[in-house]
């Protein structure tokens, strides 16, 4: 999942939305890949809500995998199972670290307001 939805893709979605200025109304149920929220002009979404939601889901899934592998490592009795689970667990620690790092960086980046000067546009 972290390769299918890389943080650079989520960041690209966020930058595109910031560049366009605002979200447009979608008909409810017209797109299967879009989140199905009831659209209202009075609803103000905080900046970076939807790209961070994807990362939060990936972090939750990866954390549950790591916890399950830790449990399996503690329950293993054979040395070859312990060795293989330890190697797999080390690889998943790295993936979890990268996801957490990207979540922290993107969370801080999205917390700052986007202005025309930060995008490199000239104010006239």
From TrEMBL:
<dbReference type="InterPro" id="IPR019397">
    <property type="entry name" value="Uncharacterised_TMEM39"/>
</dbReference>
<dbReference type="GO" id="GO:0005789">
    <property type="term" value="C:endoplasmic reticulum membrane"/>
</dbReference>
<keyword id="KW-0812">Transmembrane</keyword>
<dbReference type="GO" id="GO:1901097">
    <property type="term" value="P:negative regulation of autophagosome maturation"/>
</dbReference>
<dbReference type="GO" id="GO:1902902">
    <property type="term" value="P:negative regulation of autophagosome assembly"/>
</dbReference>
<keyword id="KW-1133">Transmembrane helix</keyword>
<dbReference type="Pfam" id="PF10271">
    <property type="entry name" value="Tmp39"/>
</dbReference>
<keyword id="KW-0472">Membrane</keyword>
<protein>
    <submittedName>
        <fullName>Transmembrane protein 39A</fullName>
    </submittedName>
</protein>
<comment type="similarity">
    <text>Belongs to the TMEM39 family.</text>
</comment>
